[in-house]
Structures are given as structure tokens and as C-alpha cells.
Amino acid sequence: MQKLPEILEVPVTHLSCKKGHGVATLPQGRELEVAHTVPGDTVRVEWRKKRYDPQRGRLLEVLIPSPERVTPRCSHVGICGGCCWQQMRYEAQLQEKTKRVCDAFENQFPVDPILPCKDPYGYRNKMEFSFSQNGARTRFLGLMIAQAEPYVFNLTECHLSSSWMPQALNSVRQWWEKSSLQAYHPAKDTGSLRYLTLREAMRTGEKMAVLNVSGHPDFAPSKTDLEGFIEAIRAVAGDAAIFLRIHQTKKGKPTQFFEMHLGGADHILEKMHINHKIFSFKISPISFFQPNTLQAEKLYELALSFLKNVSIVYDLYCGTGTLGMAAASLAQKVVGIELSPEAVLDAQDNLKRNGIDNMTLHQGDVGQVLSRLMAEPNFLRPDAVIIDPP
Known about the structure:
Blueprint: E1 6-15, E2 22-25, E3 31-34, E4 42-47, E5 55-64, H1 90-104, E6 126-133, E7 139-142, H2 164-178, E8 193-200, E9 207-214, H3 223-237, E10 241-250, E11 253-263, E12 268-274, E13 277-283, H4 293-304, E14 312-316, H5 322-327, E15 333-338, H6 341-353, E16 359-363, H7 366-374, E17 384-387
Parallel strand pairs: 3-5, 9-10, 14-15, 14-17, 15-16
Antiparallel strand pairs: 1-2, 1-4, 2-3, 4-5, 6-7, 6-8, 8-9, 10-11, 12-13
Helix pairs in contact: 2-3
């Protein structure tokens, strides 16, 4: 017989390292993680004992709020696994992150203050939402539930992104409810729908939607299904770039991805303002781009401030080349290395778009490409290296 949960009243003392959940100490001395709590809270929680750690508790009530607790904007706080600190004062969040950096370096080096966001809401230029179904075939499209991954809840609002993204999500959910398509089940390799990816260029307003599906031919969406999906996106996002991305997995073989352009442009164009210059960047469906455009501008300006009296700069894991291109105005030569061939193609396009002729790109594994370049007699030894690894 399953044991009934214990109801406890406990103080939250600190935050977990991995997920950032509040942590309380149980009477037995074990630690109990409770999502959506803040150090300084005293809370009533439900605890179901487990043999292994971490022990997890479900928040029932905040009895005494922490001085750092604030009223969150989102109605999903308490269930959503996307935000774990929205109920914590932003300045306290920055202090916690600073502490983690200091701990990582064992307090051996001075740490500069974090550059805060002008607005910690509405900043994300990319969101990825999951399709899911339970045993009763109830459909869910949204983010994962905190401390209950991989279970998904139906998201109706999100304050991390622009308002059109949750609106598009709701429109796609309505389309799904009218279709016969099923969410993909990884263990059974059945169903089709995996993820919905929405992107936006924050400086230009251009939008993109990508429907990620399984590669199982028995569950492939029909032409009618795809037409309905396009209509659902168009109803909210107008002339957005729309893609179908096929995620094909087969036991014993590498995962493969295939893309199909369904409508609109084949990319979106973002602009970044860096050191009083404006750079334009092409973003394809799978290209990596910093998820916070405006904060990335601050980050890049800070990084570039360290490049003084440099001639040769290497940009490792350069992606679409954003940081290397910004550094090109400070150096005689920039060498970018990136594994993703799609990102390198975008980077080459971005070089032409921005009129940069002193940066060269190499596609391949960073370690292997560096070894090859260093073995060449005319190897350009760098004065500085930009490292932004995945």
C-alpha cells in the first residue's frame, strides 16, 4: 500500500544548484526541494518519501513570505517549469547568480557585478513548446510542469516572450484539437507532433514558426493538416516564416533532421546595435542566436572591451558569427570555427550582408580544425580567443 504524503511546515534556507528550487531541511536531516519557493519563506508542503535524493515537496501554502518574495506576473507560477524565480525579487536573483559564479571559482578571483536587464520580462526571442497527451488522450501544448518532467500543461500566457507567442500557441492548440494528429510518444515511437518553436527578431519584428514532427511515415501530417497549421500561425503572426522540421530517429543510427519550407520568407533578419554600429544577421530555423537580443548587445560590448591592441582574433564555436563580426572592426583578422554547417552558411551570408572582409570561417569540430590549422606553416597565432561553447 502506498504511504500517504506527510504535510510539513518548514523554512526554506537556500536554492538548489541544479534547478534553482527552494530547499528546506527535513527533521531527518535530508534536504527537500520545493519549486517556486524563496529563501526566507516558511511554507506548508506535501512530501512523498522517496528512497533516493533529491526529495521533492509540493508547495501547498506560503505561511510566512520571505522579504525577497514578490507577486509574480504569471498565473502559471506554481506549476510551470519554465520560470523558477519569478516570485523572487530581481535584485535577489542577480545576487544569487553572482554567488554561484564566485562559488564556481572558489572565491579566488574578484567578480564584477552582473549587468542587469533593463526589463526582465518580454525579452526572449525564441520559445519552444511541447506537445503531449496523457493516457486519456487529453491534449497538452505548453511547457513542462516543475518537478514533474516530462508532463506538460496547457500554457495560455507567458511573460518571458512577446505577447504574440502565447497567442500563436493557443491558435495552434485549437488547430490540433480539430485534427487527428497525435503527440509523439518517444518510448512507443508513435504519433507525430513533438515541438512548436516560435522565434522573433526583436529589432525588426520579423517572426518564424517551426512545427517539429517525428519522422515516422505512418503518422506524418497530411497536406490538409499542414494547411491548417499555416492558417493557425497566419491568424496571429501574419506573414511569418513557417517551416516543418522532421526529427527522424532510428535505433542504432544517428538522428537526422529534414526541413520543409511551408510559407513566408526562408529566414528572419535581426539587427544588433554594438559599439555604435548596426549589424544585420540572417537567422535560419535551426541557427543559434542569443535568446535575449538586447542583453546580448550589452554582453558583446563588454566582451569587446577586453580586446585591446589585438591583431589576430579566433572566435571558437562562433555560430552565425555575431561576436566575431563585431570584433572584426577591432582586429586585423578574425578566424571563426563552427561545427554546424547550417550556421556557417548563415555566417557567410552575414559577412557579405555587413561588408566584412577580414573574417574567415571554418566548418568542423573546433578541436580538429584547430589542430589542422596549427599544423600549417602559415598558422596565424591568435592574440585573443573568444570562447562561447555550447
